[in-house]
Design brief:
The chain is mainly alpha-helical. Helix content is about 65%, strand content about 5%.
């Protein structure tokens, strides 16, 4: 594109700071970051459409606007919930009329670390905790549960989007230094919290238990009672570790693991091994 041959804008006078209305408009546009996702430039089209209101106010010179749009249409890929962090930094540089190679380099540097951080915040922490709380409500027949999940998730999501836009726009390139300085530690801590929550959910909602009874005269032995005496919820733990082993060591897909668990459940139910409203599996000796 032509923008690759241009290193400086023609009008180097810093633009006026963007108003809150424009910043808010770009936050809402960030929701459509992946609306035109493709495997050549990933989120580039959605990225440009999201920051376009800011670029139009910053670059009153049409050639500068064209150059800015050109280099902002290059390959772009970051976490969709944290994209406003990159928006704020890039818009701050555009406002100061920094040279295009610097803006391009900062954009690439800013979008990189957000993938792991965003996954740790949302998919490994927020979703398991929120889903765990509301799923328990739904199991008890509370109709508010799915709406509460959506409300909590979207309140956090939009709160993060707005806060990152204003914070990174005010700090400019300093925001990258603050992010990358503790990115590894933060991601690790959030991931550990997510694993802890998933483990708690496995214990709490893993209801698999056996209904095997060994007839021993007048004192039948209930295998599940024996297992509970060793380690409660041992069977759900064993199945979880089995799935983890298959995925990690043998590269099984989640679909194959689900099918395996389905077969185990059907076979166990047919023979009366799993607890339920059917005849227990009795061993005589």
């Amino acid at each position: 594109m032509a923008s690759k041959d241009i290193t400086m804008y023609k009008d180097l006078t810093p633009a006026a700071p963007l108003d809150k209305k424009t910043l808010n408009k770009m936050v809402w546009r960030s929701l459509f970051l992946q609306a035109s996702f493709n495997y050549e430039r990933m989120q580039a089209c959605g990225w440009l459409w999201g920051i376009l209101p800011g670029l139009e106010k910053i670059h009153t010179n049409k050639e500068d606007l064209a150059a800015s749009m050109g280099h902002n249409l290059e390959f772009f890929n970051t976490h969709p919930f944290l994209v406003t962090f990159v928006m704020g930094i890039v818009l701050s540089l555009e406002q100061q009329k920094s040279d295009i190679p610097t803006i391009r380099a900062v954009r690439v540097a800013a979008m990189g670390p957000l993938g792991g951080i965003g996954d740790a915040i949302f998919w490994f922490t927020l979703v398991p905790i929120t889903a765990g709380i509301t799923a328990n409500m739904a199991i008890n027949g509370n109709i508010v549960a799915p709406f509460l999940f959506l409300i909590i998730f979207n309140l956090v999501q939009f709160g993060v989007r707005y806060w990152l836009m204003y914070w990174s726009y005010d700090l400019g390139t300093k925001a990258i230094e603050m992010l990358t300085a503790n990115a590894k530690e933060f991601t690790h801590a959030a991931s550990m919290l997510g694993v802890f929550v998933v483990g708690a959910l496995t214990c709490n909602y893993g209801a698999t238990s056996v209904k095997i009874v060994i007839q021993n005269g007048d004192a039948p032995i209930d295998i599940q009672s024996v297992i509970n005496g060793i380690l409660p919820q041992l069977i759900p733990l064993a199945m979880t570790l089995m799935v983890y082993f298959l995925i990690k060591k043998h590269n099984w897909s989640p679909i194959k693991c689900i099918c395996l668990l389905l077969v185990i459940g059907l076979v166990g139910a047919f023979f009366g091994i799993w607890a339920g409203n059917y005849t227990p599996f009795v061993v005589w000796y």
